[in-house]
Amino acid sequence: MNDTKNILIVGVGGQGTLLASKLLGKCFLEKGYDVKVSEVHGMSQRGGSVVTYVRYGTEVFSPVIDKGEADMIIAFEQLEAARWLPYLKKDGVLVVNSQKINPMPVITGAATYPDDVLEKLEATGAKIFTVDALELAQKCGNVKATNVVLLGLAARELGFGTDVWLDIIGSTVPQKTIKLNQDAFLSGYNN
Known about the structure:
191 residues, alpha/beta, Pyruvate-ferredoxin Oxidoreductase, domain 3
């Protein structure tokens, strides 16, 4: 029996997807799972697409997630959610930040950002949780905590409770940002 669970974290360079994957991996290790994390960078330093595969279970052999295998996708931006949606299982969970970040073709005028991305995602029938993580992070004191807000919302769906997450945040992020990140996590978890 294969009990491996698959999570994709997708976003744009600079949004903190790598910290989110590190926190996820540490939480699963703390809970006694075998964990594999693989980071795939696009042109992340230029606002390009970034994806991280996180797999956990009794025994995980490969960090790669194929189309239709993700139990959860955590999307830091709407178009990235749409781009990676084919990787979500039929009964999977999609956690989406409502934020829009213009990709290079939109910035250069070669394309336009679609108006109806969230509506199209909802029309797929997937279990979707949408949140304005940017606004919640701002209320916590720093927009850079958007990633931890999204992680909090995802953690609620994973069902581990908050204590292990708050401890891991406290031992992972810089000392001066512990309270900010813990508040951001709880903001997403309780949303």
